[in-house]
């Protein structure tokens, strides 16, 4: 089959790579892609927030399957337009994407479906904010309602800062603070059936020791040796099944990738957030361990036939990925820094996220998160060591990374 991957970040590079390894996939196209994806398939410069343009491209290249990576095109209705054009699309409709697009909507669904999550209040003014802060106490968790590329959430003990963050939006969600390690669980679903991938952990803060502001994610690893056996089954039963049922009941079935962001609290796993797409950079760590051919799985989910696919198979190796970000990220990443990459090895490959070619065809930084270095190994310690060793051979003077990704897990 011919597959079109929509997006231009590390997640899309990683998806395109895994899909290209599926023997049933003859051609991979990426819109718009980046210099990394150009080595896997054909890049197409298209405005991915324009649903008709994406659908027209899918028709033009004879795509059998379109896979939408980021949330913004999903919320804009790209999956609706592709399906309207008669092509299978992996990604939820605009309506179903509201599970990520609106924090207030997600909280309402969770409440109605009885999903374990943090208590919350939807606030519209200062008085409501103050009341919610008094109710839940510190640390304060304040979330802007709409899509904010990881910047809409503030978790702080500083009440003034929390109030100021809340004042920046017409509708904010204030939540109870959930204490416990975070887990990202990806679930592939056709709206009814659902197959979990192997859980991963992401590192959201920019600095070592989880210091500094939230980012899109600075690194990830999988598997999670400390996670109690049975947790995935528990989350499928308590979270995924009732959420999918509620979405079907509303007439907006959720088909695509349900990203369940969890805190493992003393009283069990609780949902921190839903996303409507693969997480980045967890995807870069999880996909290299997936042994089931990805194109066929995504096609089955997109065409309502996930029942034909058995449980997903994973290798028993471990994977660690570390993000190289441009200096100044997340506030003001510096663009244009030159990059020279060593060759990939058997165990380590470099995924491109925010890169471009300059006028002379040289690789440069063109975004906040620039590269994702992904290593596999027989255990987390081995993968981690291979990852950092490889980073030492990358020439990117205007970049930085965290030095403690997966350190505690070792
Ligand atoms: P979100 O965009 O909702 O995932 O929030 C971004 C990050 O903020 C999460 O990955 C958590 O680290 C943190 N966070 C969000 N909500 C909570 C909560 N209720 N309790 C503790 N931490 C939270
Ligand atoms: N890794 C966090 C996210 O994709 O939202």
At the fold tier of CATH, the topology name of the largest domain is D-amino Acid Aminotransferase, Chain A, domain 1
Q: Give the oligomeric state.
A: single chain
Q: What Rg is obtained from the alpha carbons, in whole angstroms?
A: 20 Å
> How many E-type strands?
23
Strand coverage percent: 25-35%
Distance between the termini: 40 Å
What are the key terms here?
410 residues, alpha+beta, Rossmann fold, D-amino Acid Aminotransferase, Chain A, domain 1, six-stranded antiparallel β-sheet, 12 helices, 28% helix, binds glycine
Can you walk through the features of this model?
The strands form six sheets. Strands 12, 15, 18, 19, 22 and 23 form a six-stranded antiparallel beta sheet that branches. The protein has a five-stranded parallel beta sheet with strand order 3-2-1-4-5, with helices on both faces. The chain has a four-stranded antiparallel beta sheet with strand order 6-9-7-8, sandwiched between helices. The radius of gyration is 20 Å and the shape is globular. The chain is of the alpha+beta class and 410 residues long. The longest helix is centred in the middle third of the chain and has 19 residues, at 231-249. It has helices at 10-20, 51-60, 71-76, 78-84, 98-101, 103-113, 126-136, 159-167, 231-249, 282-286, 294-302, 380-391, and strands spanning 2-7, 27-32, 42-43, 65-68, 88-90, 120-123, 140-144, 153-156, 172-175, 182-189, 194-196, 201-202, 205-207, 211-214, 219-222, 256-265, 268-275, 318-326, 348-352, 355-357, 363-365, 369-377, 399-400. Helix content is 28%, strand content 27%. Strand 20 and strand 21 (363-365) form a beta hairpin. The chain has four domains: 2-90, 3-Layer(aba) Sandwich (Rossmann fold), CATH 3.40.50; 120-175, 2-Layer Sandwich (Dna Ligase, domain 1), CATH 3.30.1490.20; 180-308, D-amino Acid Aminotransferase, Chain A, domain 1 (2-Layer Sandwich), CATH 3.30.470; 318-400, Glycinamide Ribonucleotide Synthetase, Chain A, domain 4 (Alpha-Beta Complex). It has twelve helices and 23 strands. Glycine (GLY) is lined by residues 202, 217, 275, 279-280, 282.
């Amino acid at each position: 089959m011919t597959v079109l991957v929509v997006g231009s970040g590390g997640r899309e590079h990683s998806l395109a790579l895994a899909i290209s390894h599926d023997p049933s996939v003859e051609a991979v196209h990426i819109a718009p892609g980046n210099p990394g994806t150009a080595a896997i398939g054909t890049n197409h410069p298209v405005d991915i927030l324009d649903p008709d343009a994406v659908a027209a491209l899918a028709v033009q290249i004879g795509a059998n399957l379109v896979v939408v990576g980021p949330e913004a095109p999903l919320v804009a209705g790209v999956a609706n337009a592709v399906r309207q054009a008669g092509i299978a699309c992996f990604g939820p409709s605009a309506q179903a994407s509201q599970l990520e697009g609106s924090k207030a909507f997600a909280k309402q669904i969770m409440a109605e479906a009885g999903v374990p999550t943090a208590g919350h209040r939807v606030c519209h003014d200062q008085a409501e904010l103050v009341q919610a802060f008094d109710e839940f106490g510190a640390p304060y968790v304040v979330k802007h309602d709409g899509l904010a590329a990881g910047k809409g959430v503030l978790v702080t003990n500083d009440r003034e800062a929390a109030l100021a963050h809340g004042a920046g939006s017409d509708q904010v969600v204030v939540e109870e603070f959930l204490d416990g390690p975070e887990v990202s669980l990806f679930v592939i679903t056709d709206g009814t059936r659902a197959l979990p991938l192997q859980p991963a952990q992401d590192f959201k803060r920019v600095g070592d020791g989880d210091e500094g502001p939230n980012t899109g994610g600075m690194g990830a690893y999988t598997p999670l040796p400390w996670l109690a056996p049975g947790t995935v089954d528990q989350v499928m039963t308590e979270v995924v099944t009732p959420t999918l049922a509620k979405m079907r009941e509303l007439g907006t079935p959720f088909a695509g990738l349900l990203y369940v962001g969890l805190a493992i609290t003393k009283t069990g796993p609780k949902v921190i957030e839903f996303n409507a797409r693969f997480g980045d950079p967890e995807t870069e760590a999880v996909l290299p361990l997936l042994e089931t051919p990805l194109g066929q799985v995504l096609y089955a989910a997109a065409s309502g036939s996930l029942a034909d696919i058995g449980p997903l198979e994973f290798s028993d190796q471990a994977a660690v990925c570390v993000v190289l970000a441009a200096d100044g990220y997340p506030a003001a990443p510096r663009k244009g820094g030159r990059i020279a990459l060593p060759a990939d090895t058997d165990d380590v490959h470099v995924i491109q996220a925010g890169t471009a070619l300059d006028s002379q065809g040289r690789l440069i930084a063109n975004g906040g998160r620039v590269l994702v270095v992904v290593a596999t190994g027989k255990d987390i310690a081995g993968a981690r060591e291979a990852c950092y060793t490889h980073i030492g051979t990358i020439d990117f003077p205007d970049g930085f990374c965290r030095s403690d990704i997966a350190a505690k897990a070792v």
